Amino acid sequence: MDIYNEIEIATQRIRPYVLKTPLLKSKELSKLIEGEVFLKLESEQHTGSFKARGSMNKLLSLTPEERKIGTLTASTGNHGLGYARASEITQIEGCIYLPTNVSPSKLKALKNYNVTLEQYGTDCVDTEVYAKEMAQKLGKIWMSPYNDPQVIGGQGTVGVEIIEQVPDLDTILVTIGGGGLISGIGTYIKKNNPTIEIIGCEPENSCEMTLSLKAGKITDMDVELDTLSSASAGGIEPDSITFNICQKVVDDTILVSETSIADAIKFMVHTHYKIVEGAAGVAIASLIENKDRFKGKKVVIVICGGNMDADKLKKII
Is the pLDDT of residue 100 over 80? Predict the structure, then answer.
């Protein structure tokens, strides 16, 4: 498996269908660390997150025979939106399984696309397990949100753009969920400049990758707590290829509290007039809470998405 090659292929393959997102210099955060801080605004990507990249690359990589079969996935948010858009553009039959308690706003957004929506269970893990079983039963191609070389390849194009936009950086902060985004970015960055530090960021309430990297094996939390970073919450598949990649490319991880995540979201609203989701707040908080660690450095923070629920945002502000 050559993830770097997948990223290079994806860069050309998905170019007509995704945006090259802006890299905004944050004066406030640069002043905080007495260095330079840039925000990679994947919140401005199609469907509001980086997930538009991986889904598009996966579907475009399918053979004509596979396209006829159709695909199936499970999601409660950003992956579903990216997948729905990619299915519509490629005209490949798509189906998304959702928990029965999915938020009305997310369900409404998904209904804007030409995909089949099915609901099962009240837990996203149960929904995903059932969806995988249905994919096998129906003979559909299963599409993982992160445990897939082409999906990782698509997410890795974020790293390609970062190097083009600011080649002489020191550190990249990336929020970790299943590990697809940081696996892709880290693989591309380390191949081109091994001295650049790749730091994974997680909420204290859901930090499976940090625990797994420390244990040397995929590990679940004893108790999964609620987090504002819903897009990164949840466990890692037992056979996930992202874990082995993260072992090679992630230099360190940082954990942040729910209070810090909320403060980071408020910071973006009041300082940069931008709405970001909880997962993006995790990476921002990781720099703010560790300003001395990054003193004098040139840092890129990946703002992974901007799909924040309006009611949650009101409460935070």
Answer: yes
